[in-house]
């Protein structure tokens, strides 16, 4: 398969803290990759470096063979990388439908002073995604009134508006009640199933969800990659059991 | 289909689609026609008052364009003065007297002068943006005060303009300028409505809510802010040119900070949702100013302040929220 994303020797420090060290990862188009690791392991730093929000101190990040390391987030987004956030980043004083229309307008290269934001093609795309994420019933509600799980779904639906090549989901089930996590992740992955061209990287702490939805697992610890394999193989390694899942293993 | 349990009851239809463009056009043209016919029977003081309210309202409309993106300019007196001085100078020095041409020249020059500052200002938000724009207007005020060729602190007069090649007779000059001003206000109000409902207009609203997400969706926050600043300058320049023709005189006071403050007052009074509200608020200010300065010459600012406090407390989205619900853009 074609390599979509490649990190070559990527490193990043925050003062004395090593957030990323010599990260080398290749991700093929169409993969569903889960990034796992304890808090502070470097998962979100890695995501932020892919999107251009943080610049690596060393190394390169390539998308489709093109070096995207020096680009800012908007330029990276325009190359086909979209992300959702651990804390959903929405437009609180707008309705759910308007949030989707904003996403559509931002992806539109031919922004217009005249063309109505609510034009049929934009509405159709917005309605399709809302339907796919089971958000249609909320379309006219203000985001500020929505419960946390619905916000998470909307955050992801907005990221998907531009049919990205690579979708980064930063803890898509965090803040959601334990009994609702599986249903939520099923909803997300079912919705993503229709976007066959989209490669997905998701940061996740729940190993059951990882095993269920990832085709590959990359485990982080202290800014380093300690495992990169299929879920079953990666989760069985001593390092992952010791540093990620927190099992007490003899040294 | 799976039911998502993390929903919270039935949805409420609070937001609504934008009004039909044809309905908006009909409303705008209807208001314009009503005012045009009404102007035939109005006393002259009232046509002058509405002329000034519409001219000043154009400047406040520019502030509303900025407010939708989350910033407020305290220096729109600068573009108001630029528009006014341009119209007056073109009239006096170049001998070009057409009122419509002078109006467009005022708007265009104000936008051209503002454009180089737009990239710098687009980096700032909140009080920093407000203070920078205020600083620009006060620099303009200082320059205008010192430049004798522009009349210094006294300013200068301009004569009676023509319109489309016709000289305006004494008895009709006030009414014709009134017609031109309300026609220009109608056109700009309609264009503003179209812009607010457009893809760019929606992104402006999104910028106010969450700049980070706009960038992560591929939108350009700075581009939106630059465009809005230039559009606001164009509106302000138009207003300045129309005001100076109605007054027949211009002086540096056009750029003074209290003038800018009045434009902000009107914009806050109107809110950012309704275009018509801007002109309603501007008219209200002119009415209060006219009557209060006649009957309560030393306390009218007090009345204005109390009125503004009342609006902020009970209509935080401005008087436009009286007829536009929250969900509408």
Q: Kindly, what is the distance between the CA atoms of the first and last residues of chain B, rounded to a whole number of angstroms?
A: 32 Å
Q: Name the beta content range of chain B.
A: under 5%
Mean pLDDT of chain A: 91
Supply Rg of chain A.
18 Å
Global shape of chain B: globular
Order of the strands making up the biggest sheet of chain A: 6-7-8-3-9-10
What best-fitting shape of chain A do the alpha-carbon axes yield?
A: globular
Biggest interface and residues each: A-B, 60 and 43 residues
Uncertain stretches of chain A? none
Largest sheet of chain A: 6 strands, mixed
The rounded Rg of chain B comes to 20 Å
Strand content of chain A: 25-35%
Give, in order, the helices and strands of chain B. HHHHHHEEEHHHHEHHH
| Count of runs of 4 or more consecutive helical residues of chain A | 9
What do these coordinates show?
Chain A contains nine helices and ten strands. With 251 residues, chain A is of the alpha/beta class. In chain A, the strands form two sheets. Chain A has a six-stranded mixed β-sheet, with helices on both faces. In chain A, helix 3 (96-107) packs across helix 4 and helix 3 (96-107) runs parallel beside helix 5. The termini of chain A are far apart. The mean pLDDT of chain A is 91. By secondary structure, chain B is an all-alpha fold. Residues 1-16 of chain B have low confidence and may be disordered. In chain B, the strands form two sheets. A two-stranded antiparallel ribbon of chain B has the order 1-4. A two-stranded antiparallel ribbon of chain B has the order 2-3. In chain B, strand 2 and strand 3 (166-167) form a beta hairpin. Chain B has helices at 21-41, 44-67, 76-94, 99-114, 118-121, 126-146, 173-196, 199-209, 211-216, 221-247, 257-270, 275-295, 300-314; strands at 156-157, 162-163, 166-167, 249-250. At the A-B interface, helix 2, helix 3, helix 5 and helix 6 of A face helix 8 and helix 9 of B.
